[in-house]
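Re: your question from the hallway

Yes, I did run it. Sequences:
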Amino acid sequence: MAIDHQLAAELKSQGVHVTSFEQLINWGRSSSLWPLQFGLACCAIEMIAATMAKYDMARFGAEVFRPSPRQADLMIVAGTVTKKMAPQVVRLYNQMAEPKYVIAMGACAISGGPFKDGYNVLKGIDRFIPVDVVIPGCPPRPEALLEGLMTLRDKIAREKLMGEHRARHADPNGAASFPVPEYGPHDLEPAANRQIWNPQPLVREEGGGE
Amino acid sequence: MSVDVAGILQSIRAALPAAIVAMRTNPGPSNQHSLLVGNGALVEVLRFLRDRLEFDFLSNVSGVDWPDPKKADTIAVFGEGEETAPENGFLEVVYHLYSTSRRIGPLVVRARTADRGGNAKVPSVVSVYRSAEFQEREVFDLFGVVFTDHPDLRRILMWDEFADHPMRKDYVAPDDYEYEPTPHDAVLEKARRHYPAQS
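Structure:
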């Protein structure tokens, strides 16, 4: 049931706080995101810097980096995901408890970045796990990571826990884990999870790179 | 400090008369000449260099793929005719030796495989330089050079199930460029295969 915002504001001025269970849960979740403590490349250095005194990610309740996926809510994929590392990243994601969120930090985690042309680099972690927030940059500055964190907080605050458009983790039929790719003789098998990674085909003009 | 390769060649020939060793001159600005050693005597030559000439540090082991031996010969000028390049291409292993006690280096030593297929073999020098172990594994992984008598010859960078050797010239990388919103240069060429031009 929706809350009448005018009435809620009026009650608040009188010292009565009206909220919904959904808002309360989302507020709690968004205010204490515990990231999984792992870094893959230079983006991890910026991630570490974001937790330190100068940028102080603790202001947003996300400073408690957990060394175990069982205790983490947020996976910050910070760096180049090689094809050798990709199954481990997916496995760590699968081991995280719901609700769980993923931030793809930096050009490499988004698309392969400057190493896109390499035979050994996964061209975006969104090929295997669902990504909530992408942060471009090479590497993104700590401010950008904080901005990404705020974006994720906004996204969590808007999550529906019931009804047709509820969040994946609130849906009994929603997937909690995703297939871990196997090491094949030439590439990962499969090379992408087509259930979650199905980009629109791009149409381009002759000779153009745009 | 540069190395007197010609003098080293003479002392190797004096000590190991059976070894096939030739000097390959490099006329470039670096003037860095190298020793091309036959596989049969590679371990003995390196042991001699380590024990007698104090090349105590193997800095680097790298691989070179020569699918066209004619190209190899334009770079590695054959001087004294002890060994000719295999006709169907070959793989080359390059060792960079330094002497920390004499403060000279690098001494470039090269060895060649007989072909690029089943006989792509070079003797392992782990028994002389322990530091070669991981480096030879890397050359095996990326070039497919089999180091005979290596204590633990497994892939080191790619996964064990991987079948290819990515640094070979004829390696074809997997084509996963289906979705390239902003391609350019090499990636653009690969992305074009997935997006036929609009008529």
